[in-house]
Amino acid sequence: MKYLIANWKANLNSDQVATFCRSWQDLLQTQPLALDKQVIVLPSSIFYQSLCAAKRQFAVGLQDISCFDGGAHTGEVTITNLVNLVPKYVLIGHSERRRDYGETNQQVVRKAKLLWQLGSVPIICFDLPELPELAKLMQPFLSHPAIMAYEPVSAISTSGGAGNLPPEQLREIIAQVRPHFADYPLIYGGSVKAANASLYSQIVDGLLVGSASLQAESFYHITQAF
Ligand code: PGA
């Protein structure tokens, strides 16, 4: 299976979400997606339920989960809240959460354990500096489902960094990462666009897309190109 994941971050209002869904439907009518492609959209959590209810043809997940399981933690979204909603996929450990909220690998693995308890699949983000510790912490849990997302911070489109990783460089890094997570799909994120998506299709099992996923058309072209 190939995973094409839209990370909308804190973008889009309810009208824009509705426009995305309408355009997505129209685009799929012109050419449906191949059956080996799983598209997952990660909206702001306030749109999770309405997107699930919409006629949409993609899986809907969340961008994060609390590392507390419920109770007196104002503002958090916990597994207690999600017991009857159970998102199939939840992103954790994104570099923006590590940067803005000081999230650690220990917290990320705690979140993964809560998600396994809930019955969800964590999509676990990391950059190379996190890899040794994350791989060690994950070691006892490798029989649980997960998708691993390699995202070099400097490649994220809004980081002011270098832009997308050259495919040869990604190939070398993936060869280094794969042995740690041999049974997991391994995906790449960082300035992915329709123009570069196909370059990665022989190297990784999917893509995590930020800015270029905010409009149905550009995300659709990425999903077709990969
Ligand atoms: P980008 O973001 O595609 O805008 O670089 C990717 C991400 O941060 O998940």
Strand content: 15-25%
Number of helices: 8
Q: Output the structural class.
A: alpha/beta
Helix content: 25-40%
Low-confidence stretches: none
Radius of gyration: 17 Å
The number of E-state strands comes to 8
First-residue to last-residue Cα separation: 12 Å
Indicate the mean pLDDT.
97
Q: Which cofactor or ligand species appear? A: 2-phosphoglycolic acid
Order of helices and strands: EHEHEEHHEHEHEHEH
Main beta sheet strand tally, sense and closure:
8 strands, parallel
* Shape verdict: globular
Going across the major beta sheet, what is the strand order?
A: 3-2-1-8-7-6-5-4
General description of the model:
The chain has 226 residues and is α/β, with parallel strands linked by helices. 34% of the residues lie in helices and 16% in strands. The chain has an 8-stranded parallel β-sheet with strand order 3-2-1-8-7-6-5-4. Helix 5 links the parallel strand 5 (121-126) and strand 6. The longest helix is centred in the first third of the chain and has 17 residues, at 14-30. The relative contact order is 0.16. Bound molecules: 2-phosphoglycolic acid. 2-phosphoglycolic acid binds at residues 7, 151, 156-158, 189-192, 208-212. 2-phosphoglycolic acid (PGA) is lined by residues 7, 151, 156-158, 189-192, 208-212.
Task: Name some characteristics of this structure.
226 residues, alpha/beta, 8-stranded parallel sheet, 8 helices, 8 strands, binds 2-phosphoglycolic acid
